[in-house]
Amino acid sequence: MSLSAFESRLRIAYRECPCAVLPNALWKTLEGLRRMVDPVLLSGVDAATGAVHVLHARDDERLIVHWGRSAPPPLPDRAWSAGCRLALVHERHILSGHFPLEGVTSTSRYFRLVHQGAAAARIEAPTGLAFRDVKGRQEVAEVAALINRCYAGMALTPKTVGAWLDHPTAALDLWVWLVERSTEIPVGLGIAELDPVVAEASLEWVQVLPGYRRRGVGTALVSELLGRVAERVAFTTVSGELDNLTNPEALYRRCGFTGDDVWWVLRR
User: Fold this and answer.
1) Is 233 helix (H, G, I), strand (E, B) or coil?
2) CA torsion angle for 184, 188, 193, 198 (degrees, to 10)?
3) Among 9, 170, 212, 234, which is most exposed with the fewest C-beta within 10 angstroms?
4) How far is CA 211 from CA 101, 184, 208, in A?
5) How far apart are the first and last CA of the chain?
6) What pLDDT is recorded for position 82?
7) What integer is the mean pLDDT of 18-25?
8) For the residues 31-50, what does the mean pLDDT come to?
9) 3-state secondary structure 34-45
10) Cβ contacts of residue 34 below 8 Å, gap of 6+?
11) Burial level of 69, CB count in 10 A (0-12/13-18/19+)?
12) Is residue 156's pLDDT more than 70?
C-alpha cells in the first residue's frame, strides 16, 4: 500500500490508543517511515466497522510498527530477518511468544503513559525557585550541560540540542527552566514537543540536578508543561526507561499519567 494511505490509518489508530500502538510520539515514527528505503507496509481494516485492526511497517534494517487490536499481527516472511538489526515490539507480543527472540543481543524496556482530560491546577515552583523560559538557541549549551549533569556518561553537545529546535513539532514555549531565584542558575529543565495534526504533546525531557531531587522540582516542571498545553492538545504522552534508578514512572503517575504499556527495543 502507499505510504500516505498507511500514515492515514496509523494516525486513526494512534489517536484512539497511542501508547498501545507506538512506543513513541507519532511524529517520530512518521519521520522514521519517510526515511525508510523500500518499506514493507501492511494494514488491515475491519470490513464491518471500518476500524483499523492491524499495522506493520519495516524495511531490511528496522521494524518500527507492529500492532494488532485484538490479536498479534501476522509476521510476514523476513519480518525479523537476519538483516534486520532493530525492532520495537510491545511487551504483550514478547510474553505471548509471538515475537521470536533468536539472535537478540540486547534489550531495553520502556514504559509509555498518557495524560488525558483537563490538567490539574498548576503546582507552584518550590520555595526559592522560579520558572523561566529557555532562550532558544542562545541557551542550547546550558541545556546540554544540565542534561549531561543528570546522567552518568551522557555527552550531549549544543549542536545536538540545537537540532531539536528544527523538529517539525518543536515549540519553544514548551522549553522551561526552574532556576534559583537569587542566582538565576538552572536546577531543573522541562522540554515538550507539540504535534498539532494529532493534537498530541509529548514530554521529552524532565531533568532535575541530583542535589535538587525529592524537593518537588520534577513535579512542578511536569505540572507547568501540562498547564501550557492544556488548551492545545487532546492528550499528552511520555515514556522512559523502566530500569532507571530515579524511577521517573512514579513521578509521571503522581502527575496524572496512566497506562500499563511497556515496549521492548530489540537489537542484534
Assistant:
1) coil
2) -120
3) 234
4) 40, 16, 8
5) 28
6) 65
7) 97
8) 91
9) HHCCCCEEEEEE
10) 3
11) middle
12) yes
Specify the pLDDT at position 48: 87
- pLDDT of 204: 97
The candidate with the shortest Cα–Cα distance to 110, out of 213, 226, 238, 10, is: 238
Strands 129-133 and 52-58: unpaired
Share of the chain above pLDDT 90, in %: 80
Cα angle for residues 192, 178, 217 (degrees, 5° grid)? 85
Nearby residues of 152 by Cβ (< 8 Å), 6 or more positions away: none
pLDDT in tens, 208-237: 999 999 999 999 999 999 999 999 999 999
Nearest-angstrom CA–CA distance, 68 and 25: 18
Please list the residues that pair with 194 across neighbouring strands.
201
Give the type of residue at 24.
Answer: N
